[in-house]
Structures are given as structure tokens and as C-alpha cells.
Amino acid sequence: MNPILRRLQGAAVGQAGALFRIASHPIGGGGGLRRAALGPIAAALGDKDDLSGSVIMITGASSGIGEAAARRVALAGATVLLVARSADRLERIAAEIDAAGPGTAEARPCDLSDLEAIDALCDGVLADHPAVDVLVNNAGRSIRRSVDNSGDRFHDFQRTMQLNYFAAIRLILRLLPAMREQRHGQVVNVSSAGVQIRTPRFSGYIASKAALEAFSDAVQAEALADGVRFTTISMPLVRTPMITPTKQYEGIPALTPEEAGSLVSEAIVGRPRRVAPPFAHIFSTVDTISPEAMDALRSRVYRMFPE
Ligand SMILES: NC(=O)c1ccc[n+]([C@@H]2O[C@H](COP(=O)([O-])OP(=O)(O)OC[C@H]3O[C@@H](n4cnc5c(N)ncnc54)[C@H](OP(=O)(O)O)[C@@H]3O)[C@@H](O)[C@H]2O)c1
Fold this sequence. Notes:
The protein has one domain (49-140, 153-304): Rossmann fold (3-Layer(aba) Sandwich), CATH 3.40.50. The chain is 54% helix and 12% strand. It has helices at residues 3-10, 14-24, 32-36, 39-45, 64-75, 87-100, 115-128, 154-182, 194-197, 203-223, 257-270, 278-289, 291-304; strands at 55-59, 79-83, 104-107, 134-137, 185-192, 228-235, 274-275. Helix 5 runs parallel beside helix 6 and helix 12 (278-289) crosses helix 13. The protein binds NADP nicotinamide-adenine-dinucleotide phosphate.
């Protein structure tokens, strides 16, 4: 095994692991001040974790980050709409959320790669609720493949765009008007720190996430006066089924799904524009100053982590 990779995997434990976790824990979520505050100050800041009365749609809620986020916002009192393809899993998670309270859950199965199915989903939801207060675009497809091995795999680029970009904007186009009408709402996009880092072998995946970030930044200006907030979470590595096929990630420090789900919930409470880990900010700043320096680093990473 590559010695640098072995050292990185060793960083999962001990003091080096603690430092690594600080650098990779996203900041800007909005819950930090309250978490850091002493008892009386925290009390004065109020119980802002109360999401009762909010209708929150979370896509990709049958697994990983989406499932953890759904459980977390329901604990804060929200009505959570669970969207994914696996109806049986959604029904089970909804039943568990209802039993735990105080929030409630509705299973809303949908294949988000089908635009007409998304329209039907939104019609059904808006027939039952005046608006979705928060849309969390979390369902995603990740593909790790170099362009060398992508010559005959154009569909990889189409599939990532279909789910990570087109599905998300179809949902936004259908749900935004009711948010604007009630003059309050939020779209949370679960993006990737890889967008800032421009991680090699993930070109199709990070391009689809970057497209959603750019779309959201442009639309934020249009919806600003109507009280709608767009939030981008640049998620670092999270130990979910999505990363299981990548053997190189075994042993490398990663957030738990619960930690990532809490970040989503804090972003709903705090309504920041961006949440990102410090290392991603550092890499993107270096890239702005010297893309050539980052090219050299990325090239090293490319050689270090084989296909
Ligand atoms: N894990 C990481 O390290 C990491 C890092 C950065 C960003 N992210 C992002 O975080 C998000 C959640 O990923 P995760 O790690 O929690 O992965 P995961 O556990 O594999 O969950 C993916 C979710 O997407 C749903 N999904 C996939 N295709 C779908 C479709 N066609 N229609 C509807 N739902 C679909 C899946 O449900 P069904 O199969 O039931 O449809 C599942 O609920 C993704 O957008 C990912 O890009 C993850």
C-alpha cells in the first residue's frame, strides 16, 4: 500500500485523527454559537431547535445522510416527507419516526430520475400541504472513474446530471412558487467538498454537484426578497453505503451519518448560505491563487488512489 495512504488511514486514530476531524468538520452551520454558549446564555438564545410546524422534504431519506437528517428534524418536531425509491424502507423509517415523536413522517416514494414522477410527487404533496417549507436535495449518485476509463461511458455523465442536477432543479421549480408565496422557505443542497477540491476521478459527479451550486447561487438573488434561503453543504467524507465500494476509503477518517444528519438539521435551524469544512476552503483559496499548485497536488492524489 502507498505509504501516504497508509499514514492517512492511520490518521483515523490518536491526536492526528483529532486534528484531521477538526479540519474536516464543516463550519458555518449556525448551531455553533449555541453549542459553545454557557447555560444561561444558551437559554437566552432560546430553543431554536424547535422545527414544529415545518414541513421538510428530504430526498434520499431511505439511507445514510438523508435517513439520519430525517430522524433528526423529526426529533425537533418537524413533519418530514421521506423521498426515495425504496418504499418499504421509507415506510419502516416513517413508522419509527412517528413512534419516537414529537415530529411525524410521511413516506413519499419516488424515482427522481423520472421527471414526470417528480411532478406527480409535488402535486401530491402540495395537495396535502400548503407548501414545503424546506426542501433538502440529498438523493445522489456518485461515480468514481477516470476519463481514461470513461470513453464508452457517456451514460455516467448523464446519470449523475439526471439525479444530482435535473431532479433537484425540477423539485425546486415545482416547490419554490409556494415558498415565495408564503414568503418563507429554504432549499438545502447536500453537495460535496469535492466541488471545491476538484477531486480527480470524480469529474462527472462533482460537475453535476457544481451545476446545482451555480444554479442555486443565481436563483438566490431572485428569491431573496421573498424570504427564501439557498444553503449549500459541502459535505466531507461520510461513512455511508455510497462510499462502501471504494476500498481506498476504508479506515480514512469520515463523519458518521448521524453527524452529517445533524449538520443538515443545523443548517435548517441556522439558515446559513454555505457550510463547508475548513480544508475545502483552504484548497479552493489555494486554487484561486495558484491553480498550478493545486494541479500538482491533485495529480499526486490521482496517482496515490488507483481506480
Ligand atoms: N457519503 C459521502 O461521503 C458523501 C460526501 C459528500 C456528499 N455526499 C452526498 O450526500 C448525499 C447522500 O448520500 P449518502 O452518502 O447518504 O448515500 P446513500 O446512503 O447511498 O443514500 C443515497 C440515497 O439516494 C437515494 N436515491 C438514489 N437514487 C435515487 C433515485 N433515482 N430516486 C430517488 N432516490 C434515490 C437512495 O435511495 P433509494 O435507493 O431507496 O432510491 C438513498 O436514500 C448524496 O447527494 C451524496 O452525493 C455524500
